[in-house]
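Researcher: We're reviewing a set of sequences before deciding which ones to prioritize for further study. For each one, I'd like a predicted 3D structure that I can look through quickly. This is Enoyl-[acyl-carrier-protein] reductase [NADH]. If possible, include the structure in token form so it fits the rest of the review sheet.
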Amino acid sequence: MLLQGKKIAVFNVANKKSIAWAIAQSIMKFGGEVIIGYQNERLKENVEELIADLNPKPLIVECDVSKDENIEKVAKEIENNVGKIDGFVHSIAFAPSDALKNPYIETSREAFLTAMEVSVYSFVAMSRIFKPILNTNSSIITLTYYGSEKVIPNYNVMGVAKAALEASVRYLAYDLGGENIRVNAISAGPLSTLAARGIARFTDMLEYHKERAPLRRNIEHREVGDTAVFLLSNLSSGITGEVIYVDAGYNIMGM
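Model: Here's the predicted structure for Enoyl-[acyl-carrier-protein] reductase [NADH], in token form for your review sheet.
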């Protein structure tokens, strides 16, 4: 039970296909206690259905990352209900649909700032605001994608946001390392999620990945969840500031 006695907050679960939900399931499977975040009232019902059969039921919290005061409210709610925690998972990203459909050069200022605020700055803000409620030897994880390094058609501004997110992982790892808090990212291969369905020709991306990845397949949600367990556990105590690939080896290929 790698996470026995650890309390981990996971943000944000939208439905059963969310990477965040896969991670939450793996945390529970390996003995950890989860706190589950959701974006707004509209998605609360989905989360309540997912946890309906769990006993005991995890604490669920509404987390709108667009305002610092909302994040502060969530941190206080967690502290009041479960005390200090041993880490959190940031699985939050968004860009307006036009910014994914149109060429990157046509990205509007508003769309660019929105993508950066929700997908990148939220991670910085959550790390700062949650720091007082993190135990020593805590672990923070965010989710990224290979579009941060190479051009993925139709990924556009999200690729630029993920590049900034990965740089933030390194800077936060430095800032928090003195307090023995680790910060890492998981770069997951393409998975069918609510967010992924907003990317044009996503099914083509899945086929392309499957054909060229060394393992000749796409990854499963569970594999991302289990990697998160490793990074949240004491087994990864010497790892920080890294991007861990869970993509069936796709990132190593040149052609």
